[in-house]
Amino acid sequence: MAIKYTIQGLLIYAAMAWYLLAFVVMLSRQRKMGHTLFLVGFVVGCTAIVYRWLHVGHIPLQNLFEVFLCLGVLAYPISIFCNRVLRVGGVAADMLIGVIVLFPAGFVFSAEPQQLPPALQTWLFGPHVFVYMLSYVLMTKAAVQASLQLAGRQTTENLLLPEEATYRMVCAGFPLLTLGLVLGSIWGQNAWGDWWGWDPKELWSLASWLVYVGYFHFRYMFGKRFPRINSLWAVVGLIAIIITLLWVNLSRLFSGLHNYAM
Questions:
Q1: What is the dihedral of CA 60, 66, 71, 73, to 10 degrees?
Q2: Do 93 and 69 form a contact (C-beta atoms < 8 A)?
Q3: What is the DSSP string of 119-164?
Q4: Across residues 141-157, what is the average pLDDT?
Q5: End-to-end CA distance of the chain
């Protein structure tokens, strides 16, 4: 574990502290104050991203440090979108998700600036990675709701029940996951002259996508008759995403075109 005694590090730790404080306040049922603190944490996180962008001179989505910083900031707007548009609860859990995904940026991965390799110097770089980040946060929230369903918990916020909430968030995240695959394929053609390179990252991204295809197929066939199996599909989907995001990049078993994203 490496503490970052820099402006960048302090901004990340401040965002984590605001998120954690918001979580504690929400547990004490001070919802309005909790939402306000969550917003403050988001603003501090945005400041950290802008600082990083100015520091490295390119959109900060190149490596795992920058990716987890982005994921942590996205926790707030996606939480608000899911709560107000999709009628999904779990705002307090979203605050905790924000802390968890900022932790690797603050304490695990190096913040040393890196130059963009030639393959990343394209307009597709930002959109391709960003839509994946959006989908990953949505699918994380979906897995949290699925876990609540598996644990027998029900919402008390006059919002959707966990199984239905899971379905709505997977419906929101799946098109983004699909768009990420399509943009990656176009990018591969432009950068390496091939639409599909059978790279480990590509294969696990496809595996994640196929898990959610299986989820939709199973739910279409059986509806809500097997809610626990529906929920298990969503949890397995998140596990596949974690493998795609972390294990493929960090394990020595895998070596491919995406290894610069460490």
A1: -70
A2: no
A3: GG-STTHHHHHHHHHHHHHHHHHHHHHHHHHHTT----SSS--HHH
A4: 85
A5: 16
- The 10 Å Cβ neighbour count of residue 76 is 26
Q: What is the pLDDT of residues 84-131, one digit of tens each?
A: 999 998 999 999 999 999 999 999 999 998 888 877 788 888 899 999
Identify which of 127, 3, 8, 60 has the alpha carbon closest to the alpha carbon of residue 261.
Answer: 60
Q: What is the pLDDT of residues 17-59, one digit of tens each?
A: 999 999 999 999 899 999 999 999 999 999 999 999 999 999 9
- Domain residue limits, the chain: 1-115, 119-262
| Nearest Cα residue to 199 out of 185, 186, 210 | 185
Whole-number CA gyration radius for the chain: 18
Q: Give the contacts of 215 (CB within 8 A, at least 6 positions apart).
A: 170, 230, 233, 234, 237
CA dihedral 61, 64, 67, 69 (to 10 degrees): -120
